[in-house]
Amino acid sequence: AAKESGQHGYCLFEPSLGAALNQYVATREALQTALEQDGLELHYQPQVDLRSGQVLGVEALLRCRQQGDELMVPGAFIGAAEESGLIVPMGRWVLREACRQTAAWQAAGLKDLTMAVNLSAVQFRHPELMTDVFDALAGNGLDPGCLELELTESLLLQNAALVQQTVRSWKARGIRLAIDDFGTGYSSLAYLKHFKVDKLKIDRSFIIDILQDEQARAIVQAMIQMARSLDLRTIAEGVEAVSLAEQLRIMGCDEAQGFLYARPLPAQALFAWMQQRAEDARLPAAGHRRRD
Ligand code: C2E
Ligand code: MG
Ligand code: MG
Ligand code: MG
């Protein structure tokens, strides 16, 4: 339309680009408002040991409350947050809030829960990230071993000196490192040793059809074997079915996370879920007890 009406025979942008731009501006504004007006929230998803059934940790997943109380998930805002740079203050908030919540849960008796926090590559452009992490821990009196930072392969493969130095100083203090969406990025694996990574999070796309597809199973088996020989833990992401969890356990995968156990839950609901699980575990073994 711009083309037809314009006198100069060119258009500034396609209508669809215009719509995308409007969408971006609206999202950026919603994020800014949420940041200023207490509209960010963390939900927590448990990470379960496949052998013992014990909950070893939770992953903090960011949500953004919009006007009208609608909850936005990262798929709808992470892109705009990174593009606009808002991911930097948002990420700082996530670190503090996750650490505050971990301390609160410890005080309430949940002692050995690891808190996993996602970091974006954009946050690494700011040298303060290194100390933001230490401050979030120290400000809440937490042992660095409680915190696990989830990074992507591509981030660690950049040769940026700042990334290297930052990640090494975290490791030196005892913070744990997990590779998120493992297998979806590059496949030079030297960085696993170089950074003393603790855990591989096998992306959902790899595990989704291991029950039906022999080659998919072979790939996941190879990932698990490699992880074991490097002394890394493995966690499968997006586990929705008991049969899948069982297969992963047989294959030697250490942990699983997914809707089978719980969706990402607000803090209070996660705490209630943990208590219910502990209570169920104390019941005399009387076959399967179903809860709705
Ligand atoms: P991720 O870190 O790989 O997180 C796992 C995603 O899978 C989450 O989506 C989670 O809700 C979803 N999921 C968990 N279990 C299942 C399942 O059984 N089935 C299926 N289909 N999905 C499952 P979510 O919460 O929408 O987050 C999406 C992505 O956004 C995350 O992927 C992470 O990369 C990013 N993200 C989330 N929170 C933050 C944050 O605080 N900072 C940054 N930088 N990124 C974040
Ligand atoms: Mg993650
Ligand atoms: Mg992941
Ligand atoms: Mg993922």
UniProtKB/TrEMBL annotation:
<protein>
    <submittedName>
        <fullName>EAL domain-containing protein</fullName>
    </submittedName>
</protein>
<feature type="domain" description="EAL">
    <location>
        <begin position="24"/>
        <end position="278"/>
    </location>
</feature>
